[in-house]
Amino acid sequence: GNFIPLSTTDPSENKSLYSASLVFTQSYSPTSKPLKAYLDEHIDFSRKNTALTVDVAASIVDKCKKIDDDRRLEKDRSSSMDSGIQTRSQQKPSTTLLDCFKHFTKREVLSDDDLWKCPKCAMLKKATKKIDLWLLPKILIVQLKRFNYTRYYRDKIDLRIDCPIDNLDLSQYVLNPAEKAKAKYNLIAVSNHMGGLGGGHYTAYAKNSHDKKWHIFDDSYVSEANETDVIARTLDSRLRNSSFPNIGTTCMKDAPLASAKEPYKCSDGEKSFYVPPDSTDYNKYARCSECYSKALQICPSDSFGRPPTRKTKSGVVLYDLDDFPLNEYLLKSHHDFADNRYGGITFGDQIEDDYDNRSHALIWFNNKGYHALPSYLNVMNNLILRSKISDPVIAGKFGISTYSHPFTLNSDLLSQQSLEQRISDFGVAITVLCAYSFVPAAVILYLVREYVTQEKRLIFISGVKPLIYWSSTFIWDLAYYLILISLTMALIKIFNISAFNSRVTTTQAIFCLLFLYGWSSIPLVYCLVRVFKDTSTAFMASFCLWMFTGMLTCIADLMLTLYSWVPGIVRAQSILSRCFLIFPPYCLGSGLVHLMRNELMADFGRTIDANLYVDPFSMKLVGDRIVAMIVVGFLGLIITYVLDLDIRLPNIFYKIPAPETTIDGDVMEERHRILNGTDTNLDILQAKSLTKVFRRATGQSLLAVDHLCFGDVYPTSGDCFLYEKQIRNQARAYPGSIGYCPQFDAVDGYLTSREALMCYAKLIGIVDREHIVSSTLKKFHMESFANRIIRTYSGGMRRKLSVAVAMLGQPDLILLDEPTNGMDPGNRRIVWNNIINAKKQDKAILLTSHSMAECDVLCSRLAIMVNGQFKCLGTPQHLKHRFGTGYYLKLRLEDESSIQIAANIVQQYLPDSNMTERHGTRLEYNIPKSYTLSKIFGFIETNKNLMNAIDYSLSQTTLEHVFLRFASKQRDNSIVNLEDVLMDDTASISSSTVQSFVQTTEKANNTFSRRSPSFTPMQNDNASQTAADLRELPAIDSCTDLVLNVDRPPSSASNTSSQQDDHVFRI
């Protein structure tokens, strides 16, 4: 039952002793034959195997002198031969003597050089050989091979072999059934060798057959082995034995913690000590650095080596320090094992003879561990108890359990945790917070795109109410967020994170924190949609806002908690923690920290049988955070809904200047008609006193009437009316009454054109959707592209689809903001035809365009705005006739030598004409209206040959010329005199913003256009080139006042005063 390691340690020399041979005697029955007689019978076998066997009589001297100094020097010289001395880190894992028997008696296959001759066929064949035992001796001597000597390799075998002291059972290797009962042996002698091939020394242990005492043999010196030394070696073998449940009672069958989970869960453990492959020897020359702040020395990891280890069934790791100087090892490795080394046991220490108690077992314990002393004392008691029982199986069923209650802990003591633990909890919370900061950033992406591309406005115009829009959006986002929460909870369950998964209530609290974080964060990010102008900025700003808000608030709370001992800090921390509850990231981060701290306190409480677990939903823990996030979520939804309501606050910041007294007659007549309500029953769209005042002109606030009508920008005063009702209420109350094509493509690019049209048809409420959608696709020649993804379309195709959406369902009012921008001539003609057909069906159309030719073709009435005031109003022909400067004559000459001749002739016969352009052999003249057409044609026909003219053309002033002449008179913060516009032909184009409107007041042929280009100073001959850079804004029907912004150059800033900061535009 008792196992002794054949590689033991000599305490005086601290060197390894390797067994050379062992002597056993049968234990099945007492023998009457003297031990010497048995030794004599086997003397030959003993000599051949160099085994040492002795007959120990009772008269042997009880105690011998210590080895003299000369003998010690001789042993030191022999032990210093490094060829045979190997450290424990170089040894292989140990094995047992029974394993040696098994290997010795196994079947072996003979090689080709050792073939067996068959007695029957007389042929050499391959065969196997095997050694079996038939008869067993009374005295069994087991010789162990000690050296390995080959041609190139010589060394001492260092394999450690564990041998049982009692009951060595060899019955499984005996073939004779009669001998099986005699197959149990007890150890009576051991021969040990110390040294190597270059030299060494033999010692032996032998047991006296009379008094059953062990003696030590060292050359001529014989001494009785101290009983306590034998007990210590027996306890050491018990401690090394892997067949026991544990060094304590944790893994015993009926132990209190036998069925416990982590960290008390039992496993198979390791059967022997394991030497790590990267193990190193003890380095006594290594230098250690002193750390004064921690009052310890820090040594390099290679200074104290890597001793062999074995993990027990309960998870305790044993370190074998036979080959290490114990005190130095403990000092040098203290820093590496400061948190998990609490004690140990050493055997065989030399005790002075003067002490009554000369036990060779010493218990070490770390007094920083509250339960280290009683725990390791109980380990020693269990070893002593089990050493008294020879059968290891029976010994494993006995044990002593110890309960330690050194002092009583309470929640106040446990709440004073270490700084490292708090920082660890904070790190976990920050990690989760950083991951979940992407949630609001991901939510805002699509909403900002809808807002910037005006898709959201198009949805509202189609009849969707803000409550339905935001409710459906919130439900959709929350559903996706629940998927993320489910994955998070699954990961917590899979990886079995104890701080979050130990109790059901804790798991429920974590789920509530994560869910309510989304409940509160998603509505808050809805409120920020109007702030951003592009999706990338919105994503990064939202992520950083949520992450840094959570980090800063949590760090502030943590720092105040760490300095709670400072007077006044506790109150400040309490106030700030309440204020921080309005931030969902703080609620999530601090809530996770509180939950982890609660689990830590509960774990401490279990060790002292105290229930320190607090209900996670209590207001003391995370209840206040749950309530705060619920309230913040409702407030965010309410604010989001209110922001989309048509609530206009009274204007108290801007004073509206009085309109100019110098107003064109057509404009004045139209204003009086609208304000007096004369013949307005046929008007579809009216803008009454529509005014917008800007504090400063930024050059980026060019506004369209549709912005003022639909709520993106609120007017300072006045409003727009559709059939004498406010257009904002009308659009939502009667979906389908207004069609809208925004400046940017507002259709979802991941749909097909058929799906997009079908979607808006459902929103409008069209009954026969399939027929209407197919008809619309056919009218816009899009049948072949109906089932393709919109994002694959060209820019012109997407604009054409936007126009088709605006005209879906034949609305009464159609707003088109640059509908043909980016189109090729073919698609532009298709859109023009559909606009003309809508005019024929008595539909009012408000058009914005870059092309004056497009306005001339499609529009019925125009209005040109200068410095925020209408300067003219009427049909295109009326404006060209009234504000045109006459006629434009274009000549194309044969060569450049004729240019000067032609110029002189024109100046002679038409002295009031003015050359406006000259390109190569092409000349363009502006001829006043004082000349009749007959006189002009007569002059040209008469002098055509003299001027060498190939061809010529005479035309009336175009809208482009009229517009450019008005634009040239735009001045910052000044009133343009109408007479100056009509009479001055030489003024250069100034930096300005001019609004051009095309509109009608009749129900038929209602098409409106507005144009607002920005110019920079240039010469007159480049004026036509400037027209290509103009930007248009839509006009309105039956307008009285419109206020729009003016682009002002930086150079004009010096001419402005504080009274000139308000810029007013009226219709």
From TrEMBL:
The chain crosses the membrane at residues 426-448, 468-495, 507-529, 541-563, 575-596, 626-643. Residues 1-243 form the USP domain. The keyword Glycoprotein does not apply. One of its GO terms (biological process) is protein deubiquitination. Keywords: Membrane, Repeat, Transmembrane, Transmembrane helix, Transport. CDD domains: ABC_subfamily_A, Peptidase_C19R. It comes from the Eukaryota. The keyword Repeat applies. It is a multi-pass membrane protein. Residues 80-91 have a biased composition (Polar residues). It is found in: Membrane. Its main location: membrane. Residues 647-892 form the ABC transporter domain. GO terms for cellular component: membrane. InterPro entries: ABC2_TM, ABC_transporter-like_ATP-bd, ABC_transporter-like_CS, ABCA, P-loop_NTPase, Papain-like_cys_pep_sf, Peptidase_C19_UCH, R2_ABCA1-4-like. This is ATP-binding cassette sub-family A member 3. It comes from Rotaria magnacalcarata.
